[in-house]
Amino acid sequence: MNKLQFFLGVVLAAILGGVTAVSLMQYFDEDSTANTNLQSERNIQLSKYLTDTAFTVPDGINFIYAAERVKPGVVFIRSTYNGSGQSFTNPLEDLYNEYFRNGEPRERRGPSRSSGSGVIISEDGYIVTNNHVIEDADKVDVTLDDNRMYTANVIGVDPTTDLALIKIDEEDLPFVDFGDSDDLKIGEWVLAVGNPFGTLTSTVTAGIISAKARNINILHDRNNRQIEAFIQTDAAVNQGNSGGALVNLRGELIGINTAIATFTGTYAGYSFAVPATLVRKVMNDLIEFGTVQRALLGVSIINVDARLAAEEGLDIVEGVYIQGVASESAASEAGIQPGDIIVEINGKKVTNVSELQELVARNRPGDKVKVTYYRDGGINNVYATLKNTMGDTEVVKRPEELEMEGALFITPTADVLQALEIEGGAQVVELGEGKWADAGLEEGFVITSIDHEKVFSAEQLMDIMADKSGGILIEGITSEGKHAFYGYGW
Known about the structure:
CATH topology of the largest domain: Thrombin, subunit H
Helix content: 10-25%
Largest sheet: 7 strands, antiparallel
Distance between the termini: 136 Å
Structural class: alpha+beta
CATH class of the largest domain: Mainly Beta
Number of helices: 11
């Protein structure tokens, strides 16, 4: 190869290299532009998603707005028990250590106290808390965020949801607005506000929604009508947080903190709250009627899972399987049958028993709900008119309280009569100093006869006792279903 050929070869190689380099640069520029455009599109889609949903994540996940908005509406509650020598237990204390006595045994030998939290829901002093925070308390004291103190009146309680409503006599109070817990999404940021340990008042912690419609088997009802559809979060909740607020980043109430999952009695990673949609319904009932209006579909149910689907030859593996239908119930009259699988209530998806129970419990007797169910490979829709515990659609009124000798009596509700398997009686709902306490009666006791004369109502008890003197024999049944007799010199 001569020098001229060598020179021409070098020049040609340089030209080819330059062309290749320019082509590669154009290729990578085009690819980079494409990547940039793709990322921009993703950012636009993400921004649109956040804008279109029911929540907005502030820059830097800032919790200040929600905390400042909610904190003034969360109160500290101190429950005082004068002591009557009785001993009792609460499943929330036994399983989750959420009914607090500072580690002391439950035997009441003298005045004792427990503490918790509450949320102001109206400017005129209505406060929601947990039933187990104020249950059987002789006095309920409330301390506001600004340190003002009040003694509260108990308006009503609902052990089946572990909720209670109390009220203080004040106006123009800061309160927390209700949000829609149905809009919550797994992974959404939330804040828990309460008074852990009874000393760390007005504490705010943050976490995310870990799960919805959780059943952790801590509530118990004689008629198996407890409602557990808890919101699960990993916001730190401890002793004393019970009854406090769970809020979204807009500062709206989306749950009432109720229990923690723990082996030690303190926070271990998960906490549980009653969803706000259910809280609002229970509070409205207690304000309007003094008692909760329980609406029933009238079915016995279990979760659908892979095992049940295989056993029953089902084509779906989620929903609620109908094992039985009560006669003359809402479900029976709507044509729902054993073997049907409920998959929606009022257009809201149902995947388990907890979701179904909550969606039904939001209603009152007489309300119609749209039930979507699966049968023989097809989807069907019917409207069911829900009934109360007595089998009709009437509103249930709170029994009239009658006072005699330091005790308040009511005629037992249909639920109590059914649970205790009795026809009637006079139930002790509040017991102070007086002859009935001296005789040994306890709150919840139902008097069924005096000197072998049957008692069917509180009014009848008043009539019977009007002419009594000297020794009397009191017969009845305890709230645990045990028969008991008391002799007393009246």
